[in-house]
Design goal:
The chain has about 250 residues and is an alpha/beta fold. The chain has twelve helices and eight strands. α11 links the parallel β7 and β8. Bound molecules: 2-phosphoglycolic acid. 2-phosphoglycolic acid (PGA) binds next to β8.
């Protein structure tokens, strides 16, 4: 059965001290309030990973992830983060292909395919992000565009490996804008992505993949989005920086 996952993406926010405070609050409240069948992930800046992993070590609900990783194992790649470095902190997830990385760092589907493979080989769970711009949506090409992102970055994987990937659909026009996709728009896309997965792999495999929605999800709209049959969770930016809001989302199924 596919997992319910609420993942926070802190982006480039919180210094170390504030990050430790936020992580401690999240773990404390999640342990008391988050339903047992919901997995909580905090994707922190790289310098926080080690200490935040320590804070989550005794929680069986809250896990830690990085926001990016290199497709190279090690070497002369100044400023980059290797999969082994991420796992050595105790983190177990990694966001791959967030639209901000695709836009500002020109990450390509091919590069992201290599990262997903390496993350899996190193035992990390990739949170693979996909999503279209407003322009593409208005042209009516969004399903084709996002399906192609999946196809170019994921469809070389064996079905065993694919089932370890978590997909996050994040329409770029909904990220950080306060404008969320409607529950219907999210469901339509998630259903199309699952159909594409079923087509490439099988119905059984497609049913095992968690597909998260991301883009201005907050306590006031989470329930409507999470009640859709193909929406298995959320990737939360802004609202993951407030422990109360973030945990309220984990209770919104
Ligand atoms: P947002 O960000 O919730 O602030 O829109 C989501 C994301 O970019 O992962």
């Amino acid at each position: 059965m596919r997992k319910k996952i609420i993942a926070g993406n802190w982006k480039m926010n919180k210094n170390l001290e504030d990050g430790i405070a936020l992580a401690s609050e999240v773990v404390n409240i999640a342990n008391d309030e988050t339903p047992n069948d919901v997995t909580v992930v905090m994707c922190t800046p790289a310098i926080h990973l080690s200490q935040v992993s320590g804070i989550t070590a005794n929680s069986d609900k809250v896990f830690v992830g990085a926001q990016n990783m290199s497709e190279h194992e090690s070497g002369a790649y100044t400023g980059d983060l290797a999969a082994d470095m991420i796992t050595s902190t105790g983190a177990s997830y990694v966001i791959i292909g967030h639209s901000e990385r695709r836009e500002y760092h020109f990450e390509t589907n091919q590069q992201l395919a290599a990262r997903v493979k390496l993350a899996l080989a190193k035992g990390l769970t990739p949170l693979f992000c996909c999503g279209e711009s407003l322009e593409i949506r208005e042209a009516g090409k969004h399903v084709e565009f996002v399906t192609n992102q999946l196809s170019e970055s994921l469809y070389d994987l064996s079905s065993e490996d694919l089932q370890k990937v978590v997909i996050a659909y994040e329409p770029i026009w909904a990220i950080g804008t306060g404008v969320t996709a409607s529950a219907e728009q999210a469901q339509d896309m998630h259903k199309s992505l699952r159909a594409s997965l079923a087509d490439r792999y099988s119905h059984e495999v497609a049913e095992e993949i968690s597909i998260l929605y991301g883009g201005s999800m907050k306590p006031s709209n989470a329930q409507e989005l999470l009640s859709q049959p193909d929406v298995d969770g959320g990737l939360i930016g802004g609202a993951s920086l407030k422990s109360r809001d973030f945990i309220d989302i984990t209770k919104s199924y």
